[in-house]
Amino acid sequence: MSEQVEELEGSELGTKDFWENSYTREIANYRDHGDVGEIWFDEDSQNRIITWIARQEDEIKQNDAIIDLGCGNGMMLIELAREGYTKLTGIDYSPKAIELSKAICQDQDLSITYKVVDLMSEAEVTALGQFKVVHDKGTYDAISLHPDDAKTMRTHYITNVHKMLQDDGLFVLTSCNWTESELVNSFGELFKLRNVIPTPKFKFGGKVGSVVTSIVFIKNK
Question: Which of 122, 143, 119, 36 is nearest to 79 (CA)?
Fold first, then answer.
């Protein structure tokens, strides 16, 4: 039996209103200045994942279906498209995020599918189909910060990610709020740890840690 995971304190970062307001501002900045907005967890984290995916060329083909959960401004998928990946989907529950990502994608003359999808909705997730690679950089964190019953929302998230991942698929998750052991514990009923993607380390008080955790899960057989 998995150990109880201590819940995080709720935050406005876990609410849809916060992200709608944020992306409303970023749309205005993009229209006025061409600024695509913030890269969640910075560009280094994004590039680290893209590099890891590109190195799995025996397992991840450029025409495999890849989805980005909580795609925000869509830059993760834009960079994957530049690397030659052709079947890319980005979803976000913020209509403003999707509006921004579509605008940037169109201006880049790239072909990427962006959709407004609520990851808490089984019907909406089922309609997406399945993917070889499911990627999340920060969305599980945001769900974990929801002020109202984040534990139930995390459970729905884990179940729905399992639905959308192919049986031979890879779930790539980056978190700044949860450690490797906490993530393995939370996802352990439906997923098994496949890889840990190395991230920068820091040392404090004689202990070594990471600012972010990037791990790869596969489905439990």
Answer: 36
If one looks up domain 12-219 in CATH, what number appears?
A: 3.40.50.150
pTM beyond 0.70: yes
Contacts of 83 (CB under 8 A, 6+ apart): 50, 54, 62
Q: Which of 60, 75, 127, 128 is nearest to 105 (CA)?
A: 75
Tens-place pLDDT, residues 171-220: 999 998 999 999 999 999 999 999 999 987 655 555 545 678 999 999 99
Domain boundaries, the chain: 12-219
